[in-house]
Amino acid sequence: MSSFRRGRYVDIGCCPHNIAGVFYNTISDSIMTTFKITLEYDGTRYSGWQEQKNARTVMGEVRKAAEQVFDGDVEMQAAGRTDAGVHALGQVMHIKVASEVRHPPALIARRLNDLLPADIAVLSIERAPRNFHARHDAIARVYLYQISRRKQAFTKMSRK
After folding, report:
1. Which of 33, 36, 78, 155 could pair covalently with 101 via S-S, beta carbons 3.0-4.6 A apart?
2. Contacts from 41-44 at CB under 8 Å and sequence distance 24+?
3. Rounded Cα distance, 72 and 126, in Å
4. In a 3-state reduction of DSSP, which class is residue 3?
5. Of 42, 83, 114, 137, which one is the catalytic site residue?
6. Model-level pTM?
7. Sign of CA dihedral 82, 69, 104, 35
8. Is residue 83 annotated as a catalytic residue, yes or no?
9. Tens-digit pLDDT profile for residues 117-151
């Protein structure tokens, strides 16, 4: 579980990166920009949402793009995590940047989408209150399960 307390990032052990040390020392109460982002992705080629050391994940790809767009480390978390191969139609996440960001959200979305693989797309991005947290502030989650009880041609496709 991760949370922001008094404007500082406190890592309680869920994140495999040592981001806590970076943010604990650099984010001040007066300088921090938070964005609420809605993503869509085809999870076929990913080992789920959560970053893993030896696997390609959606969060890892979003982090790489965000660190280029914001020119430095970012703190991020989604409202929930998906397992390997699971798709998302409207995954809400937040990104917290340790500086003031002057670019309009539309430009940030365009830059992120340019850097992200084709199977991950930013649907929307908006500035959020500094204490916005995608997981803690979620009021509902909706899941759609599609279960086939027959052989399907689509399950045999390789999307590498």
Report:
1. 33
2. 41/87, 41/88, 41/91, 41/119, 41/120, 41/121, 42/87, 42/119, 42/120, 42/159, 43/82, 43/84, 43/85, 43/86, 43/87, 43/88, 44/85, 44/87, 44/119, 44/159
3. 19
4. strand
5. 83
6. 0.74
7. positive
8. yes
9. 999 999 999 999 999 998 998 888 888 887 878 88
pLDDT tens for each residue of 18-54? 333 334 334 445 578 999 999 999 999 999 889 999 9
Could you say which architecture CATH assigns to the domain 2-156?
Answer: 2-Layer Sandwich (3.30)
- Report DSSP letters for 50-71, one per residue: S-BTTB--HHHHHHHHHHHHTT
Pairing of strands 88-97, 33-41: antiparallel
The domains of the chain are located at: 2-156
| Adjacent-strand bridge partners of 38 | 92, 124
HSE on the CB side for 51, CA within 13 Å? 18
Q: What residue has token string 């995608």?
A: 134
Residue-by-residue DSSP string for 144-160: -----SS--SGGG----
Cα–Cα distance for residue pair 122/41, rounded to 1 Å: 9
